[in-house]
Amino acid sequence: MKTEKKLLIVSVLCFLLILPVWIKCTEDKTSFTFAHISDPHMFAAGSSTDEQGNNSTQRLSYLVNKLNTRNLDFTILTGDFASVDGNNTAEWDNFNETISELNTIKYFCKGNHDGIDNDYFYEYTGQNTTYYFDVNNIRFLVIGNEETFLVSGTCGINITKVQAEYIKDAIEGQDNIWLVAHYPEKVSASSYWNDVTLIEDLKSKLIGWSSGHEHNGRAISNSSGYIEDQPRSPTLYSNDNTSILVWSEISVTPTSINVTQYDAYTNKIIDTAVYSVDLSYPSAFPCVELIVGSIIATVSLLLIFAIVSHRNKSHKI
Question: Is residue 296 part of a domain?
Answer without folding.
Answer: no
